[in-house]
Design goal:
Elements: E1 3-7, E2 10-16, E3 32-38, H1 42-50, E4 55-62, H2 65-77, E5 80-87, E6 94-98, E7 108-110, H3 124-129, E8 132-136, H4 147-158, E9 162-166, H5 175-178, E10 187-188, H6 192-199, H7 204-212, E11 218-222, E12 228-232, E13 235-239, H8 252-265, H9 270-285
Parallel strand pairs: 1-4, 1-8, 2-6, 4-5, 8-9, 9-10, 10-11
Antiparallel strand pairs: 2-3, 6-7, 11-12, 12-13
Helix pairs in contact: 1-8, 6-7, 8-9
């Protein structure tokens, strides 16, 4: 596989537009309900597959109906899921997302089998043979906070693999553990809140500089409607967001990471990869769920979007 995603796999149940939770047993009629494959590893993998990048995903799901569905939908989208392990007696991670009219998305979440993913669950040869390894949600995959996993990442990078890292949560207690990964990755892609919590800085620029000093070649901070900030040894550059109607922001971060990885694979520099990530995220924001709006999107032909 060209890309291997490692980490969080979630089933999302999305409903829109939701302006309030009905009182008692009242019912609100909605325009749309979808069930999708999501999570910082699974969602990124699905987006990569939909834009034509060969991808395999590694993670853990329960031996339950939700796990059956998640693997089925990922395979249907073109992802190799042979590296996803099943956990007997555990629940597959799932979220219920009532999407507000402005695209915002509060959530109800069960972390499930993601918490137990371990280095021994991973196919080391496949990981070290990938062109890009994307780590999705290392803040909540505690079993991978493991020197053996760091050594595996180092071996992959020594062989020419590029390693990217995205996070899942905005929970302060989970941020300190993430910093142990920074010497072992090439590109860190947090959102603004995560970057500020990780670094203790007051601004995205200061956060990116502080995190860059801890090991990555680049730190790309996503800023929602304000675009993203790309920091490398060459300096800091702002990449504006595209002006598109927003239906749902679910999966936009995963889509950005997928576009960024695809950009690197297509020979773009870091800024070019960030612009492609911006274009892919904009497409996803125009529909419901982490895989929306990507029909016909080809990274090599995305110059008009990116």
């Amino acid at each position: 596989m060209t890309v291997v995603t490692v980490g969080v796999h979630i089933v999302d149940v999305l409903a829109r537009p939701v302006e309030s939770i009905p009182a008692g047993q009242d019912t609100h009629l909605l325009e749309q309900i979808r069930i999708t494959a999501a999570g910082a590893a699974a969602g990124t993998a699905v987006t990569l597959a939909k834009i034509g990048v060969p991808v395999a995903s590694m993670g853990a799901v329960g031996d339950d109906e939700l796990g059956d569905f998640l693997l089925m939908i990922m395979e249907r989208r073109g992802v190799d899921v042979s590296g996803v392990v099943r956990r007997p007696g555990e629940q597959t991670a799932a979220s219920i997302l009532p999407i507000r009219p402005d695209g915002g998305r509060p959530s109800f979440h069960v972390p499930g089998a993601n918490l137990g993913l371990a280095t021994t669950d991973l196919d080391a040869d496949r990981l070290t043979g990938a062109k890009v390894v994307h780590l999705g949600g290392m803040d909540v995959t505690w079993g991978l906070h493991d020197p053996a996993f760091f050594a595996l990442l180092d071996k992959a990078r020594e062989g020419g693999t590029t390693v990217t890292l995205d996070l899942l949560s905005n929970m302060p207690d989970l941020m300190p553990g993430v910093r142990a990964f920074l010497p072992h990755v090439d590109y860190l892609l947090p959102n603004e809140e995560q970057a500020l919590m990780l670094s203790g800085a007051a601004t995205p620029e200061e956060a990116a500089a502080a995190l860059l000093a801890e090991g990555p070649k680049g730190v790309i901070v996503t800023l929602g409607a304000d675009g993203s900030l790309v920091a490398t040894a060459a300096g800091v550059t702002r990449v504006p967001a595209l002006d598109v109607p927003v239906v749902d922001t679910t999966g936009c971060g995963d889509a950005y990471c997928a576009g960024f990885a695809a950009g690197l694979l297509h020979g773009r520099d870091v800024l070019g990869a960030a612009r492609l990530g911006t274009a892919v995220a904009a497409r996803v924001a125009g529909g419901l769920g982490s895989d929306a709006g990507l029909a016909g999107f080809v990274p090599g032909d995305a110059g008009q979007d990116a």
